[in-house]
Hints:
The protein is an alpha+beta fold. The chain contains five helices and six strands, in the order βββββααβααα. A three-stranded antiparallel β-sheet has the order 1-2-3, with no helix packed on it. The protein has a three-stranded mixed β-sheet with strand order 5-4-6.
Amino acid sequence: MHCPFCRHADSRVIDSRTSDDGLSIRRRRQCPECGRRFSTTETASLTVIKRSGVVEPFSREKVMAGVRKACQGRPVTDADLALLAQQVEESVRATGVAQLEANDIGLAVLPHLRELDEVAYLRFASVYQAFDSLADFDSAIAELRDHPRAGRLPGDPAEAAPSISKE
């Protein structure tokens, strides 16, 4: 790290602290040449390789925009989407990989979206898991029925199928 005062090519780390959000590190440094102190903030970069081959920085806003389309007409708030985007970023950063393909991020969204809204999950999964037929939807729905969301109990009215009476 170059000293911002004398441009000496090296500096010594005096103190390191993790930021409140846990995504960056604040370091207090001292220049061995001029003796002055300065602070730096370091973050691990996370980049996305798009299908076109273009590389761009990871964006929570893009995750939210993509999921927002799947959640259209569903009871999902912007706060829910922001939390989901944060969870997705944390899970992809936890892999330790600095560069991910866009499809990998879409797949990382699925478990978090499933907990949020099952209909939006099916919409999103149909794109990122490349559903080709109704059989793909049937198997995804069967999987949802076999393994319901956390927090729901069997027999929960939200899970019950509507009854049709023939009178």
